[in-house]
Protein 1
Amino acid sequence: MKTPASSIVMFLVAALLGAVGQYLYKVGSARIGVGWRGCLLNAPLLGGVFCYVAVMVLFVAAFRRGGNMAVLYPLYASTFIWAALIALLAFDTPIKPVNIAGMALLVGGMVLMGC
């Protein structure tokens, strides 16, 4: 069964949203106030929750269109690459050679899983 291009695009968007959600959780964690209101009124945390809900919606939509798990889930692993790039841009977190090697292995695995 061939995975539709629309399902692949949905999973790549989900990967990007997952990384944005991680960024928003990090930013929101620094702004948490006291008590439950500190979480519920925290815009970055709520944005992170929204991102993860959107990821799940995209997963369901992609599978409903006939997406193959063996093709799609490795694409979602690109979340870690997006997260590293966001951390570099937002927090000036360096990407070390070992990180680049890990990213290359992720991409290689994605290619192999898609064969």
Note: The CA atoms of residues 28 and 42 lie 6 Å apart.
Protein 2
Amino acid sequence: MVTATRTAYEVAASVCDPEVPVLTIEDLGVLRAVDADDDRVTVTITPTYSGCPAMETIRDDLMLALTHAGFAHVDVRLALTPAWTTDWMTDAGKEKLRRFGIAPPTGKAAHRRGPIPLSLAVPCPRCGSLATREVSRFGSTSCKAHYECTACLEPFDHFKVH
């Protein structure tokens, strides 16, 4: 038997990120919890950073999708703690980013702590070369940096580790 919570989770998990539409909010790790009972559902999401402008659109998209699926009462809550980390992204989501031309985060956020921050080489999502350089710490959105590959000469965004 399919439960209301399972149905609601599947609907919520299918909502796409408006800034990177190849990712669902589940792929991104933004979807934290879904609880449903009959026609009432509560969804908890965590923004990639506290000022993320996409959260309003994600909330609206969740409300629309869940209402369309038959849930009359939809409540979307923001959870700011614990803070979102790229460690919550799914492997499938990281692969979707790479295929879309965005270098996925490399390494684990937990390994970036310490007195001396280290930057790992960012592989080019197009040719795989490690001969890349950061052009700008901020790319098309605040959670991405702009890079260029010195091997294939293509520009690309890199989803920053945090």
Note: The beta strands are 31-37, 40-45, 73-78, 102-103, 132-136, 144-149, 155-159.
Protein 3
Amino acid sequence: MQNFGSNYEFTELSLLNKVLKPQQEFEEEKAHYFFQHLRDFTYRKEINLLADGGFKATAKRLAFEFEKLFPSEAVIQFEAYGFAELDYTEKELQTRLSNEEFWLSVLRRERKQVIAEVERAIGLVSARTQKYCGDITYSEYKVSEQQAIEYLERHYLQSPDGKKVSLKEVSDHNVSNPYVRFCEWISRVKGFDMVAQEQDHHSMMVSLTVPGYMHAALKKTGHINGKYNGATVKECMEHLNTKWSRIRAKLKRAEIYFYGMRVVEPHHDGTPHWHLLLNCEKRHAKYIKKVFKHYALQESANEKGAEQHRVQFEDIDRKLGSAASYLAKYLAKGMTGFKEEGEGCRHAGDLAADCTRAWASAHRIRQFQQFGGPSVSVYRELRRLKASSNNPILESARIAADAADWAEYWRVMGGFKTSRKDHLIKPIYQQSEVIDKLTGEVIPPNDSRNCNKYGEPKQPSMKGIRIGHQALITRSEGWEVVSSPPQSNGFPRQGEPIRTGGLGLV
């Protein structure tokens, strides 16, 4: 065994401190491999994503350089850097590429993902080191989380007539709060379960994972998987999303309806896998399993353990518990945390949720998603209504939403097999009016002056709900964000749990 930093000359050696701990040892062969590929992986042309000191100077330089380019040239140049693709038109991308703040966000996002990938690829994320994410990813997530809390604490929403509400207070009472989000998800799972029981539907848990060669580390030993092909978390997610798209398309062609929830979580080494709570008509359950298995085993079907582990099904036995009880531990793991025994950092298993959220943040993963069922946006908007309505359908939906009765809400919206476009209540999206702070003038929607910082018309936002020809505006006041002086340096507060390298959480 050779010390990773002592016997190899490397011009970027100081950068390794961002990824490697001085006492960490690696086999010589793995060290060679790492040095060979580190620069290609962590550099975007001349930009070092592991550099200290932030990216403000780099962002300013790039914005200045791209401002001189024609739109088509700017797009080509941006693609040459190898950053993640951006879903903008050529014109939209041109205005952003000449903006310093845009470049700063791109560089910070890429840096966060690169660090998480390097930690995973060299074995610093495993059941024997640190589960789910590496030390740097975790600590930087906690710092950013504290900075976000500080921002909320010193900013307020202010209405035109002077009313103020703390952003922190707003955050504590909506789904930004993990406990509020957990409760909402559980109520929706229970609602789906009630519908399934009333309709005599079959319910099952489906676990879907990637082939063995996409897993970075072995669970028993924590060593790098000898068959690992270097697949990133992003590539693993693309693999799973492709499978899911094909499965849904196949079932749609067969006119098979299903609904439920999907949870994405990391294996011990940060490799993603999915858990789906799926409800369907009993006569379709066997065929759905067959379709899942077909697509899950399209690659490396003869791989050891593929038949047993690539996709797994667990039929829900309601004598043992409801669907909510089956899914609750996965929701808790990604939102609120729970006690769990394990190696490495998991000796303090109640912080599993922190590590899981840090992992999802670094890789920009949407952890929770509903498929099938009614609109969540309308459901939340109905909960804002306090006054009763003369419209019996709207009133029934309002009462159901206010009581967190997801099953009744879905019945009012149209029920099982009713497509989203045919639901009785729909959301209203409109561009917001803004107030000129210098003149006090109210600038209406669609006015050429009502633009974002890139000079583009602002995107429509939720304003209310519509049933038939009746529109109900639920967000009429023009609130704006105002600030108070900063109060801390953005570092974790005293008593905040800190994750230490190789020693777990203290």
Note: The longest strand covers residues 272-281.
